[in-house]
Amino acid sequence: MKALAIDSAVTCISLAACNQQKKASVTLDIGMRQSEKIIPAIEYVLEQVELETSQLDFIALSGGPGSFTGLRLGFAAAKGLQLSTGCPVYSIPTLKAQAEPYSSWPGKVLSAIDAKKDRFYVQIFFQGNAISESLDIGVEEIAHHLTNEDNVLIVGPDSEALLNALKNFAPSLQVSRFPHLTTSITDALFSLGNEATENLAPYQGPIYLRKSEAEENQK
Fold first, then answer.
1. CA distance linking residue 76 with residue 193, whole number of Å
2. What are the CA-CA distances from residue 172 to residues 29, 146, 147, 168, 175 (Å)?
3. 64-112 tens-digit pLDDT
4. For 63, phi and psi rounded to 5 degrees?
5. Closest CA to 137 of 157, 160, 109, 165
């Protein structure tokens, strides 16, 4: 497998390149400068595994929900590479990619991203399969979904924030978290992207569960 993975759905952007057994990854958590650095970062990880863009089998990127600016940045970079090389781009739902490394967890897995405004983007999985839609909801609603559930694992970059909020709201909930590893989501993007090549999944744009602030302000 010769592939590039891009996760730009959250504040800290993660990129990785895979050339058979060789892998290289980098993270960018530098605010607005990420738009200037994403292309050089892509070039860097490809160089580390001795891979040319023309050799890529596919590009897999997290397709949302998440940061509007981040998603557009990742899609712009991926589409630019697709236009120049013809390499297929596979959009993987971010919440699914976050949950994928924990498909063997014996209970429910709650994949979460901080959506701001006291809300979270969440989706519930069991043994790798989604058992809820992607939701944009508050802590009280999340707690309601988890009532009477045991052994729930919260995953994702904002898992700690959600766990603390849930514990404050409903201390009796049986929830825990696994420390977020940026390599986990890029590895998941490689795996799910490789599956997509077998199924010839069509390209899709970003997944938005709400309107941007600019769109809301137009009202």
1. 18
2. 35, 11, 9, 10, 9
3. 999 999 999 999 999 999 999 999 999 999 999 999 999 999 999 999 9
4. -100, 10
5. 165
